Structures
1.
Amino acid sequence: MTGTHPVLETRDLTIRFGGHVAVDAVSCRFDPGTLTAIVGPNGAGKTTYFNLVSGQLPATGGQVLLYGEDVTRAPAPLRTRKGMGRAFQLTNLFPNLPVLENVRLAVQARAGLGLNLVSMWSAHVELIERAEHYLERVSLLERRATLAAELSHGDQRKLEVAILLALEPDIFMFDEPTAGMSVDEVPVILDLIHEIKAQKDKTILLVEHKMDVVRSLADRIIVLHQGQLVADGQPEEVIASPVVQEAYLGVGKSA
């Protein structure tokens, strides 16, 4: 959609846990074709903000708007159907099913056929081929017969990315996608994010601690600190700002 509304917007989005305000009136707009990195120190509220946006936590106050529609009270599955994809938390693995079946079910769901666990594979040749395509993109095709539970942590993360790709969302939300991966595995995921960004019609939100990754991918950086939005702008200016140097990079603080 290309109307006056951004793809995704939060207005004064807030959540309180008892007396603690974990996300404090965060207002932000996200446009198509952009990759926004969300950074901040541990405990800043980044993942909690993601959980509010994707519908995994109920907001105490404020709004989440998707294409201008208020989805603040909508459950996570409904937000997924409307085009929002959340990696690593929204898309759960079926640990006792093979790798290929995990992705095939996502392809089947995207095709509107439902999650029919007992359907015969022979009736879904096209779905299997699509699933194999996504597995190849994350370098897991050779592990297609392996149970998801038997994968290494890094391979499980790659499988979750394959499932997210299979759902073909308009909005990709990656929460530290390379955490727990070996040095050799990281480029697979970063290259995929580059490919998604190159499509120019997807909106990407990325929580990431590695500043070299942020610099290589981000069009924009927003900074959360103690639940508040404290900086928002071009990567170079945000990284160089005093608030980020102190709050995120630790400049000026004792070790």
Note: The beta strands are 8-17, 20-30, 35-39, 61-66, 69-70, 84-86, 171-175, 203-207, 220-225, 228-233.
2.
Amino acid sequence: MRLQKFMAEAGVASRRASEQMIINGRVVVNGIVAQLGMSVDENMDVVELDGKQLKLQNRKIVILLYKPRGVVCTSSDPEGRRTVQEYVKDIPERMYNVGRLDLNSEGLILMTNDGELANRMMHPRYGVKKTYRVICDGKLGAGSIAQLTNGVNLEDGMTAPARVFDIYPTKDGGNTAFSITIHEGKNRQVRRMLEAVGHKTLRLKREQYGPLSIGELKSGQWRYLTDDEIQKLMGDVH
């Protein structure tokens, strides 16, 4: 964001008054005297006014984490397993994970310091779409694909229609790789849907959540969402 906007949101002064402070040489970014018109990354850059570091007031933080397999989506674990919180321990704010991926699943999970935003993103009324890359055992036939697409009757109710696409056999030819997009958040939903049509899930990776994609992140890596990404995400739950 523009430096003067950052200063205004940090409670320093109006944008116009902040611009004058920049012109007067009172503002330093990462140890260098700031210039009018420059932009800063609110999560990465250090901004100082008259030698005092500025911080945004009540800033909303949302990060995108590639959760590895074997990591649990809780703040602590009595069995001593790694948790998603360990990956964000250097962030001073309290971070909440948005929904969960089970122990043996991997991929995109969001974390935020805004509990209200987290609850809205998880609320079933908004139907935020989630896309997974899956490998299941055996050949996923046309009948099973039709069932997954039209809805599967689970013990907690019928699932909504899903999109199943990009289907092909694995290299050894014995199993099936495919992508599936759902709009619900039932516990272990994709795994249970596959069980209901006679298949075991061998690998499950979440690749997309709403407008967000895991992109080039590797297992265990994370990044901050940009302001534009946060706005798009909030647009999905309003």
Note: The radius of gyration is 22 Å.
3.
Amino acid sequence: MEPLLEVDQLRVRFRTKGPVKALLEKDEDPFIDGVMGVSFTIHPGQTFGLVGESGSGKTTLARAVMGLVPVQSGAIRFNGKNLIGLKRGQLKPFRRNIALMFQDPAGSLSPRLKIRSILAEPFRIHNMMPDNLPDEIARLLKMVNLSPAMGDLYPHQLSGGQARRVGVARALALSPKLIIADEPTAGLDVSVQGEILNLMARLQDELGVSFLIITHNLAVVRHVSDVAAIMYLGRFLEQGPTQAVFHHMQHPYTQALLSAHASPDPDAVHHRIAITGEIPSLFSRPKGCEFHTRCPRVKDICREQFPKVADRGKAHQYYCHFPLSESVQ
């Protein structure tokens, strides 16, 4: 099966100083790296879970895929076509097939428009107005288990779960092949989170749509994704089939994240692995493996050299000089 989305050695950089200021201060590299050398693929009907702490570059990666931030190097191929370097008009046909669910469900909806007008926007922007727009909007609302009568409401009249469902309906408007869901359960009650995830799973079964889910909720990734990736300071430290990453993790950072996950069993014995220190600033990125400042298995080589990719089999990859499957002397 041919991949739907291929990201190859993607690098995104942001300027921190203007050209004149950088020249006056003799700063030869006035940039920070938001994403560094990231590669992954998403196949049709597949869910890819992207996990990482706040500021790790997850949303920047999603925005780069959408063409919303400039890319320094690498390739982003959708259905075999490289999107890097395309102008806005050339990107428009691809954006019909890539939809984005924003992190803030209510804040992403215009407070001045009724729900039916919000759902009509994608059709107007892409000049794809259906023959009967009211019926199409009613169909979208029913798809996400909302009453068509809610089309007459404003966003402030919706609950958080209802606003998230409207966001799902808007993402589905043009029948995309890929939906990028940025923190789809953030700010929702646990019961509502389950409803949203079940809704997304049902729509995937019915429509065959692929998902790129960005989250820090490990339970979400574990239960809904086929492939998972762990991101830290703009890099993937480990990625592979979700079950392999969760049950046969190789990177100490992955192990620490999973150990911090709360269990619903009150009698469960927790063996949490504490990560000491703060996340380094992108303005002073550590040399070598960026995680070495907080890693319990750190050695001298970690401070000097970023590890090469290692393959554990079945597309399970990691970047670590001393993986968990090896003893450290």
Note: The chain has a mean pLDDT of 90.
4.
Amino acid sequence: MQINTGRWTEAGLDQIIRRASGIADAGLRIAFISELFLGTGYMESTLPGDASADEEIVINLSGMDCFTFLDYVEAMRLSVSFAGFLEMVKKIRYKDSIVSYKSRNHFFTDWITSNAAFVIDASEIAGRDKTSHIVRQLNGADGDTVYIRGIAPFERRLSCIPAAGIDQAVINRLRTGDYIGIWSLQPGLDVSHVGICIKQGPAAVLRHAASRPDIRKVIDEDLYAYVGNSPGIIVIRPK
């Protein structure tokens, strides 16, 4: 296991996680934990490996991409100590806690099936008339090309709230702590980006690890404005 605790010590993180565990509401616990990462630098490719190599658990809190940001927040949300967090990363990141590249949750919607004990698919909060459903072949990029080598393309039924259907009523139904995936139009993908909904009165922000060259850190951005320029969203809600 590779561990980089970033600007925190293990003892400091243990205290933070223990304090967070005392927050009864799952969403507020996620808000508390994720706020600690604001300003943390964006860093891609922190999880090395491929299907031909042995997988190792990597914890890197000094820099993260949008998906590892969610990994760490969700694992802390479900832990009561730093030691428990290390173990929970394995459960959140890998199917059946099997540490291997092929068992890694490479797609956002893998959480719905692999982490069903902890989260639910909540995209239908918009109502049936504002929710789209599609069966998509994930991991198939184009012809014989795949995004993730060593993993065969597979079909999955996806639910999405198109951007045109996201109004104030939908924003009102979102909750603090909801995990938001930005719907992708690219063949083979479910989402192009992920973040966390944080409610601020009637409004909401998307807390996410932004890769844009002028930002490259964890920030809050107006959620309605952000998704308004996207194809839509997938919502995964913590239990």
Note: The chain has seven helices and 14 strands.
